[in-house]
Amino acid sequence: MGSSVNRIVGVVFGAVYLVVGLLGFAVTGGVGFIATEGGLLLGVFAVNPLHNIAHLLIGAALLVAGIVSTRAAKGVNTVVGAAYLLLGIVGFFLAGTAANILALNTADHFLHLASALVLLGVGLGAESVSHSTSRTATA
Q1: What confidence score (pLDDT) does residue 135 get?
Q2: So what's the pLDDT on residue 77?
Q3: What dihedral do alpha carbons 9, 87, 36, 50 form, nearest 10°?
Q4: How confident is the model at residue 138, as a pLDDT?
Q5: Given 11, 63, 91, 99, which is the most exposed site by the fewest CB atoms within 10 A?
Q6: Helices 70-94 and 106-125 meet at what angle, rounded to 10?
Q7: Cα distances (Å, whole numbers) of residue 8 to 25, 47, 55, 128, 133
């Protein structure tokens, strides 16, 4: 994995989201699959089974990409970061409506926005992935 910031962030965020996805099932017993109000993970973050599965899929994508290569990690970090930015913003408008199929609450919105900032910042800003070679001038 080396010292690639994208790979490290992908692996760390991937592992965290996998754990969060698994832990979410401990608080969603009796909660409908797409219930608009879910169980509270860590007493703060609302989740339902669909939200837990989303965390597992996102975690797996980040983790695998982080293990595979810098290019893969950079791409997945950027895509997931963009999706979280969109979800963080749109989530404020979904809460309290029938369209809130992930049982999002205010704490979720801010966590999604924070995740977006880190993932997009690293995905777009760290480690330019190019195949250009540097050449040294010879006399």
Answers
A1: 44
A2: 98
A3: -40
A4: 47
A5: 99
A6: 150
A7: 26, 26, 18, 15, 25
Task: Give the span between the Cα atoms of 128 and 34, in whole angstroms.
Answer: 39
Tokens of 114: 């924070």
Torsions phi, psi of 46, nearest 5? -80, 135
- Among 34, 57, 56, 53, smallest CA distance to 104 is for 34
Whole-number average pLDDT of the chain = 92
Identify the band that residue 127 occupies on the pLDDT scale cut at 50, 70 and 90. confident
Indicate if the pLDDT at residue 130 is higher than 70. no
Tell me the DSSP string of the chain: -TT-HHHHHHHHHHHHHHHHHHHHTTS-TT--TT-SS-EEETTTEEE-HHHHHHHHHHHHHHHHHHHH-HHHHHHHHHHHHHHHHHHHHHHHHHTTSTT-TT---HHHHHHHHHHHHHHHHHHHHS-------------
| Helix H or strand E encompassing 46 | strand 45-47
Instruction: Show me where the domains of the chain are located.
Output: 5-34+41-125
